[in-house]
Amino acid sequence: MLLQQLVNGLTLGAVYTLLALSFSLVMGILGILNLAIAELFMIGGYIGFAAIGANLPLPVALVAGMIGGALISAVIEKLGYEPLRDAPVVTPMLSTLGFSIILQNVAINLWGSDPLQLPDQYLGGQLQFGWFTIGKMQLTVLVATVLLVAIVAFIVQKTSTGRALRAVAENREVARLLGVSANRLVLFAFMLSGSLAGAAGVLISLHYAAITPYVGVEVGLKAIAVMVVGGSTRIWGALVAGPLIGLAEVMTVAYGGSQIRDFVVYGLMILILLLRPQGLLGGAQIDRGQRV
Amino acid sequence: MLEVRNLRVNYGAIAAIRGIDLDINAGEIVALLGANGAGKSTIARAIAGLLPFQGDIKYDGRALRPNKAELNVRSGLALVPEGRGILAQMTVDENLLMGIYCRSDKAEALEDIARMRERFPILAKRRNNLASLLSGGEQQMLAIARALLSRPQLLLLDEPSLGLAPKMTDYLFGMIAKFRDEGLTVLLVEQKARQTLKIADRAYLLETGRVVASGPAQKLINDSTVSDAFLGGHAAH
Ligand SMILES: Nc1ncnc2c1ncn2[C@@H]1O[C@H](COP(=O)(O)OP(=O)(O)OP(=O)(O)O)[C@@H](O)[C@H]1O
Ligand SMILES: [Mg+2]
User: Fold this and answer.
1) Best of A177, A184, A288, A290 to disrupt the B interface by mutation (most B CBs within 10 Å)?
2) Residue B11 domain-assigned?
3) What pLDDT digit, counting tens, does each position of B98-147 carry?
4) Are A192 and A28 a contacting pair, CB within 8 Å?
């Protein structure tokens, strides 16, 4: 039972991690909170549902969600961020809020405001490992998350584009002097972030086997909190905070009751931030993200 | 190699550069001297492509478009900015790799990095350290090495001696003097006038956005108005 809950918690945490990573790619690199990410996540969920409902294999559904997320994110960057780059920091944030409301409205009009359910036939049954079982979907969510995080880590840490991205994040002017087209890299960051949000959306719709146009608000807010708890200037803080929050949430529901779920989860976050205001992995003052 | 005509740069309502002419011939070390706030960095940054400007800057006979640093570096113009501009959160190696970001001949560029490590052994020794852990002098070496990796024809150095110990400054100036032998053209922005004039071919003296004196470095050292106005404070050398 406990082990089962641990797996559930890790699965949920995996989705939080991906989504928090999506937020922190833009936050850590550009210093802005892209609120539309929450709705890219929701749209990703619907795309995943559509793909799985059409009997497409899961990797295809995942890739479809990622492409959808990346493309919408590119539009948001072009229309909602680039023209406002030199405006005060709250301006592009408001414009991303505008996009998130638009996306939610589009989803309500396209798919209705009632939840869509994924029929059992798609959920793929259980795998038995000795005395504990794991849903095939849960396993898929975990494996996909680990793979995606590894791919993103590789891109950011090891590729020339990833280095350029970090250079832009640290000092836009120096990056330009070295030949980096900052505009192009910012667009790339938005698309990478959007693809992660889309993937997380596909995975959450599998985890819950249901989706509503409001899932972005609920889960998105938690992912932002996960990012802050992890340390918003350190991209990888989400890797610690995501599983932690996922576990806390599932354990609370299992042993405390779902009515105190958010109370415990957000309470824990506030406690962590009181003890470590910079987040779990956040560094000192100098690590504060700057805007580019 | 570089022709600057009637260059004007404004920061909002502030006119920082008020119409200057400046020439750099291939193979020269040209010094740009002036007190704090004279506008030296502004000129270097406008040439490098970090600022909008009015007037003409011609490089290799072609007009440079304002604010196109990412293109300029590909046509052989490199700036080591004031304060060195190293990427502190990256390792020494990653900084060097950023130096070849603009190169299309990657295999050869990687060999250049290897050569740069031989030239500056400290960069090989500290290759996996965060660049922020290097000393000021080491950071300046890293910044210069990184700029050289773009294979510039014209190297702009903005106050490279800033914050360096005297011994390190001597070493640095010795190194810059040798760039000439490698066929590199240098614009050296400095406040340490006497030392700079010793290695420069020609110099421009800047005061609140205007050129107030220019000519062969040797002549400027001996020019009484220049030494009174500007070199006095550095008489110790
Ligand atoms: N970003 C900016 N915004 C407004 N004014 C600026 C800006 N940068 C420089 N200035 C002003 O432009 C003038 C020239 O500055 P600049 O940095 O080019 O001088 P400098 O000769 O390089 O000085 P220093 O020796 O201190 O580096 C100064 O009056 C400065 O205050
Ligand atoms: Mg300066």
Assistant:
1) A177
2) yes
3) 999 999 999 999 999 999 999 999 999 999 999 999 999 999 999 999 99
4) no
What pLDDT, in 10s, does the model give residues A24-79? Answer: 898 877 788 899 999 999 999 999 999 988 989 889 999 999 999 999 999 999 99
pLDDT tens digits, one per residue of A200-214: 999 998 888 899 999
Q: Quote the CA–CA distance of A76 and A82 in Å, as a whole number.
A: 9
CB pairs under 8 A between A and B: 60
Q: Tell me, using a 6 A CB cutoff, whether residue B191 lines ligand 1.
A: yes
Query: Do B99 and A178 make contact, defined as CB atoms within 8 angstroms?
Result: yes
Instruction: Kindly indicate the confidence band of residue A287, based on its pLDDT and cuts at 50, 70 and 90.
Output: very low
Q: What's the ipTM?
A: 0.94
Question: Would you say how long chain B is, in residues?
Answer: 237
Pick the more confident residue, A85 or B235. Answer: A85
Residue A209 pLDDT = 87
**Cβ neighbours of residue A17 under 8 Å, at least 6 residues apart?**
A145, A149, A226, A238, A239, A241, A242, A243, A246
pTM: 0.89
pLDDT of amino acid A197:
97
Determine, for residues A182 and B49 on separate chains, whether the beta-carbon distance falls below 8 Å: no
- CATH number of the CATH domain containing B224: 3.40.50.300
Instruction: Output the pLDDT for position A182.
Output: 87
Residue B43 falls within a domain, yes or no? yes
Range of the domain at B207: 2-86+150-230
Probe site for chain A from B65, B92, B101, B155 (most A CB atoms < 10 A):
B101
Cα dist from A3 to A125, A138, A207, whole Å: 18, 13, 17
Number of domains forming the structure of chain B? 1
Token pair recorded at residue A3: 């082990």
User: pLDDT at residue B237 above 50?
Assistant: no
| Interval between CA B151 and ligand 1 midpoint (Å) | 28
Give the chain B residue whose CA is nearest to the CA of A160. B101
Of chain B residues 96-115, which have a CB less than 8 A from chain A? 97-99, 101-102
Question: Are A167 and B98 a contacting pair at CB < 8 A?
Answer: yes
Query: Which two structure tokens, joined as six digits, stand for B45?
Result: 């940054």
Task: Please indicate whether residue B158 or residue A4 has the higher confidence score (pLDDT).
Answer: B158
Where residue B39 falls (left for φ over 0; alpha for ψ -120 to 50; beta otherwise) is left
- Answer whether B207 contacts ligand 1 (Cβ < 6 A): no
Listed by number, the residues of chain A in 141-160 with a beta carbon closer than 8 Å to a beta carbon of chain B are: 160
**B197 CB neighbour count, 10 Å cutoff:** 25
Whether B130 is in a domain gets the answer no
* CA pair distance A30, A175, nearest whole angstrom: 14
Using CA atoms, how far apart are residues A182 and A22, in angstroms rounded to an integer?
A: 19
Rounded distance between C-alpha atoms, residue B31 and residue B161, angstroms? 13
How far apart, in whole angstroms, are the C-alpha atoms of residue A112 and residue A94?
26
The whole-number pLDDT of residue A291 equals 45
Residue at B126 is within a domain: no
